């Protein structure tokens, strides 16, 4: 039997509602929670807590590995039949993941120290959270040519 649901939660936008009226568009908080795969967050949290040197190269290796995995994970595990491809969610998920990691104590502490601003992580995370809905609106307007429910054709 073919699986008709995505393996992990996908973000439902206006495009999805136009393609399938039985789907309800996610609210901002629902979208925000779905943008970073919880499995990626869990993997980072578990592996980074095991690392002793928070400023060493191992934490950066873990970050870059999960950063590369995030869009692949999102793309392949959020698709559903007869629904638009989750292109924006796939693009924004590594950006949201990076902002989340930047806000934590760990691999970017030296960058924050260089700017002499320990709260920089908070500013980056807040800015990212505020920009995601704006970027989503722009993305939908540009890549659907104002037609809701249309999937952008590859160039």
Q: In a nutshell, what does this entry contain?
A:
The protein contains seven helices and no strands.
What do these coordinates show?
It is a single chain. The chain is mainly alpha-helical and 155 residues long. It has one domain (14-143). It has seven helices and no strands. Keywords: Membrane, Transmembrane, Transmembrane helix.
Pick out its properties.
mainly alpha; 61% helix; 0% strand; disordered C terminus
Number of domains: 1
Helix content: 55-70%
Give the termini separation.
34 Å
Strand residue content = under 5%
Structural class computed from helices and strand pairing: mainly alpha
In angstroms, what is the radius of gyration? 17 Å
Q: How is the biggest beta sheet arranged?
A: none
> What is the string of SSEs from the N terminus onward?
HHHHHHH
**Helical stretch tally:** 7
Shape: globular
Count of β-strands:
0
Mean pLDDT comes to 82
User: Which regions contain 5 or more consecutive residues with pLDDT less than 50?
Assistant: 148-155
